[in-house]
Fold this sequence. Notes:
The chain is mainly alpha-helical. The chain has helices at 18-24, 30-33, 54-57, and strands spanning 35-36, 51-52. The chain is flat, with a radius of gyration of 14 Å.
Amino acid sequence: MKFVQPASALRVDNKRNLGFCMEVERGVDWDECAEDVAGNEHVHNVGDQLLNLTGCFQSQNYTGSCFDAVWDVARKDFIPC
């Protein structure tokens, strides 16, 4: 049997993964700048609901540490916090 991560696991623009950005980019007011995307009312799992993070990425306090990617969480030497 093979387990494959869903594509949403690699994206930061959903409610499930935003917590990582909130940790590494503490100077950004994520609660203020993250906006719900139209159509979220039809997504039953709240963690899968999409967010528009454009305003967050344009914040003066954003340093560029939050992006879509695969991170090897077993390695501790690359973690920016």
